[in-house]
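Morning F.,

Quick status update on the modeling queue. The single chain you submitted on Monday has been processed. Sequence for confirmation:
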Amino acid sequence: MPKKGTSITFSSGDAAADAPAPVRQRTPRGPSPQKTEATRHSIVDAAFAEFLEQGYARGTTASVARRAGLSKVTLFRYFDSKESLFDAVMQRHIASAALALQSSTLQADETVGAFLLRTVAPAMDEFDRSGRAATARLVVTEGLEFPQLPRMYRQHVLQPMLAHFRTLAELAQSRGELKDARLQTVPELLLGPLWLAMAHNTVLQPEAALNTGALFRMQVQLLFDCAPQRAQASPEAC
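Structure tokens below.
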């Protein structure tokens, strides 16, 4: 026992032993890439619904956030404006279909006309039901006020599709399957049925709606020899 008046000192080792262990700070983790992508998709789907229902001018980012079950703060972490939202909608819901068509492969001995009937015509059948007709109509009706809308549509949908159709028309011409060589310079003719049906079914005579897919098939048959196989191609094949 130490004598009275004697001070007691502790070595640095004793003090370290009695000190509390330092608390390790955890770095907060962000959402996983899968969750981030899922959130992004839910926002784009909500924006698609908002624009189809309200149009571009009346659609709001606040309403998109509510539809997606998110706060506006969270929404703006993914998209910084209504314009960027519409661009994402255009790429996910509209341009994706065009890209899928462009990635389709011409089968051995398949005529170009038969290829178009096999790959593009079914997409035309779904043109109204998929929301693509409503989106194209929105671009037309609001494009003068918001010129960025037709610019996006040209970039993501129209120009890629026209380039695809021009390539197919040139291939058909080289094979002797094209009935009118002018399609190579005016591939817009293949999209004519789409715009005709949209205008007719929306404004001109909606009570007697035209079938977009049927119109497209007729157009292909007018422009191409479309027997299933090249060996069978003839002017009477369609």
